[in-house]
Amino acid sequence: MVRVPKVTRADAVAAVRNPLAFIAERWTPTSRTVRRAALAALVMAVAIVVTGGAVRLTGSGLGCPTWPKCTDDSLTTTSAMGVHGVIEFGNRMLTYVLCAAVGWAIVAARSRKPFRRSLTRLGWAQFWIVMGNAVLGGVVVLVGLNPYTVAAHFLLSTALIAVATLLWRRTGEGDGAPRPLVGKPVRQMVWVLVAATVLLIAVGTVVTGAGPHAGDSSEVERIPLDWENVTKLHAVLAWIVVTLVFALWFVLKAVDAPKGPLDRTRDLFLILLGQGVIGYVQYFTDLPEVLVGLHMFGSCLVWIGVLRVLLSLRERPEVLAGVPGPATESTLTRA
């Protein structure tokens, strides 16, 4: 039987002063553990978007009519609030699960040997985005589901997914200077794809803000735009993104690109096809809640897919200890 080491007073003081350093001195996770922790944070970032969509689509956005308490007199939901209160309060509680996943990613990244500051910075970036979005979520409730705050809430969740995806990718790379796998014109084309996708997602929030799913059964302010016209703009942007991905695949084949970028581009194209089918079906069937929820999930997958294409265009080797190289402090922390 392995004896548990005694914790001295000095150990307790060190744990209180810097708990992450205290854990890192006594635990070294495997590379697989660190990568799984990063993936767990990414999965929870997507889950919080999907469950937030469920809150909206079930009309439970004001199930807890105030914040940070559920009611003026109760921290939690009450039986009088019914199923809407349970759904809204459940989504709030899921934020703690997200925080736990992000915290686990931070601890695993900090305890990794050798220490990589770039990973811990990405972990802490997720933490602060979660905290900011939690406060913004409270504002959304306090202003009665104002559509502009709801859109900002979703876009900040999209930023969280971006940082979580980057951390997940970086756990499988080294900290050496990035080496491009394709030429500059191809990289520029992918950045155009990223910009078009950001615009597509942003317009998607306007479609939601102008559409019929206000998030509550009461009268909720909507964005004063013609919903069908905004939806058509959203569809045009979607076709632009699909065309760019289709063209990118042929360009990558023409320049004999490595397998990684080709595979990621193929994956993204398949995701876009599925997302497009869901989008058109929901439009012609008067936006059934289930399909709208699937479309929100698909939006997350599209965004992750685009980021994976972007990150597949370069490689970052391990930095060998004791071997001088071009890597500097700035390159070590640059994603």
Describe the secondary structure blueprint for this structure.
Blueprint: H1 9-17, H2 19-26, H3 31-57, H4 82-111, H5 117-142, H6 147-170, E1 179-180, H7 184-210, H8 227-254, H9 259-284, H10 289-311, E2 314-315, H11 329-333
Helix pairs in contact: 1-2, 2-4, 3-4, 3-6, 3-10, 4-5, 5-6, 6-7, 6-10, 7-8, 7-10, 8-9, 9-10
Radius of gyration: 22 Å
Please, how many helices? 11
Shape: flat
Order of helices and strands, N to C? HHHHHHEHHHHEH
Cα(first) to Cα(last) distance is 43 Å
Strand order within the widest beta sheet:
1-2
Structural class of the helices, strands and pairings?
A: mainly alpha
Major sheet details:
2 strands, antiparallel
Report the average pLDDT across residues. 88
Number of strands: 2
Indicate the proportion of strand residues. Answer: under 5%
| Residue share in helix | 55-70%
Model regions low in confidence, pLDDT < 50 over at least 5 residues: 322-335
